[in-house]
């Protein structure tokens, strides 16, 4: 029987998850990674978002555990922080502090290097998977027997410059938002998929802090995670302050609508005093800064619409960020990559590696899922006048409907919204008849309610209430 081979372009989290999936369907999998993996829990080159906040949503954590049994236990062993959405997270929005209640939706907060190194540890154990580091793909190879299909890639070593060809029965592009697939497809004379970009002109500034062992929180500081999700003309920012391994905390200050955050250390620290609530600054005063301020403006949303590709290249797939990437302030990327890999698994199980319709089926299924994180990210960016992109009728409606869901005081509605944003339920469940009826009933019975507590001059409580 002929040996079957698959190639995964890119050793990212998406690439390693794709390799894990392919490990069950082919005889050999080769990951082609242009950089070298760091030897310890260090930042990997080519990941611009690595120094900013990272968390795995509930569905993402579930899928990583499914691909790599023991993943969560290993993460916790290294100090990753488990957080229950709705109970452990204090969130301030323009309407006030969110209610606190149990949701049963657990996330993991950790540094990007810890997450990647843990997945890599499991991936290296896969007996069918080989990883070529410091090797870059320079072209796709294709054949034509009446329909173009991919049969391999050309690669070049970044160490000695030597080039060679790798044959494959299936090629999966997992090289991220900066994928060169358009260049490779153009070299083959193929039509490119439609490319859609929404750029909200956001900017990140992040700094790492250490919490001294002898520094105790005040007894009424119940939260594990602090989020100021303002993003209004008056407060054009989002603050995410997360705990990670080794008693460290990561503070990301996100500016929206071209209101970029400070990048100098003194300006960054002084800006915290001016936030809508003093709690972030008070937390920082009990910590020690352990890093400079890391800036980033790699925040655009981009969707390469392979699902609309009229003449797809057979035996070629693109997955996760290589297809659809999101503004990272919404924390969806890693979890969306894991879900995309699960969709790949389901399609391979149903159609098989050699099915000529596999690309069509996979791209369509992946796009149905990607519509959810795209709406939450791109549509939200399109609320602001400086955003560049196409504000569709669907996005206008979503931007009108979602705030009603978020403001509703019903815990059942809050849980449902959490389940959708954590990818546990489909987006359609937000429009179920019982949800719409409860929203209408809540709007009739009472106005938007703010949590109690001592109010600021703007009417918003300064500190999140315990319950």
Structural features, described:
The chain is an alpha+beta fold. It folds into 3 domains: 5-49 and 115-197 and 300-370, FAD/NAD(P)-binding domain, CATH 3.50.50; 71-110 and 203-296, D-Amino Acid Oxidase, Chain A, domain 2; 393-445, no CATH class. It is 30% helix and 23% strand. It has helices at residues 13-22, 58-67, 71-77, 112-123, 181-187, 265-271, 279-284, 333-351, 358-381, 393-407, 411-421, 433-445, and strands at 5-9, 28-32, 55-56, 81-84, 89-93, 96-97, 106-109, 129-132, 135-144, 148-157, 163-167, 170-173, 194-198, 203-210, 225-229, 237-244, 248-255, 288-289, 294-296, 301-305, 316-318, 324-325. Helix 2 (58-67) crosses helix 8 (333-351). The longest helix is centred in the last third of the chain and has 24 residues, at 358-381. The chain is globular and about 70 Å long.
Features:
single chain; 467 residues; alpha+beta; FAD/NAD(P)-binding domain; D-Amino Acid Oxidase, Chain A, domain 2; 3 domains; 8-stranded mixed beta sheet; 5-stranded parallel beta sheet; 22 strands
What layout of secondary structure does this protein have?
Elements: E1 5-9, H1 13-22, E2 28-32, E3 55-56, H2 58-67, H3 71-77, E4 81-84, E5 89-93, E6 96-97, E7 106-109, H4 112-123, E8 129-132, E9 135-144, E10 148-157, E11 163-167, E12 170-173, H5 181-187, E13 194-198, E14 203-210, E15 225-229, E16 237-244, E17 248-255, H6 265-271, H7 279-284, E18 288-289, E19 294-296, E20 301-305, E21 316-318, E22 324-325, H8 333-351, H9 358-381, H10 393-407, H11 411-421, H12 433-445
Parallel strand pairs: 1-2, 1-12, 2-8, 5-15, 12-21
Antiparallel strand pairs: 3-7, 4-7, 5-6, 9-10, 10-11, 13-20, 14-17, 14-18, 14-19, 15-16, 16-17, 20-22
Helix pairs in contact: 1-4, 1-8, 2-8, 8-9, 9-10
